[in-house]
Amino acid sequence: MSRRSREQVPPGPDENPDREADPHEVARTIALQQLTGAPRSRAQLAEKLAAKEVPAEVALEVLDRFEEVGLVDDKTFAEGWVHSRSSGRGRRALAQELRMKGVDDETAAGALEAVDDASQVEAARALVQRKAGAMRGLERAVRERRLYGMLARRGFPSDVVVRVVREEIQGEA
After folding, report:
1. Ramachandran region of residue 168, left (φ > 0), alpha (ψ -120 to 50) or beta?
2. pLDDT tens for residues 30-57?
3. Is 0.85 topped by the overall pTM?
4. Which of 82, 168, 171 is nearest to 127 (CA)?
């Protein structure tokens, strides 16, 4: 056993069991830890603070302050989310994901303006081309059905789904 491990280290200010933790400091720490891993929406942070039993008024104050200094910004969060996921998702799926993250519809709509029809067609085409190669041995109807389903589940509009799948199937012939 080393000499260092035998020494008694006095408890730090945060380790004193008799001292009650400041709820504002606890809330700030939790929020900062959440933001360290990945960007988060205000609603996600509020949900995490509630799960850690931070009083609602303290959570509100901390989140308001984080917004003031720019650590929490739903508009920036939504724009980043759309940018990072638009190559594999349609506008409808992205809107639903943002809603699940607690982003309000107006903010989500603003972020989704970056996803135009041409970019959706391009993204859908890339997905279909990637998947179609593995389906070459299947009957045409089966390939079409699977490709339609894949694109629909990813939130692409039906006109884009039909157009891209038909182009791919006709291009194989």
Report:
1. alpha
2. 999 999 989 999 999 999 999 999 999 9
3. no
4. 168
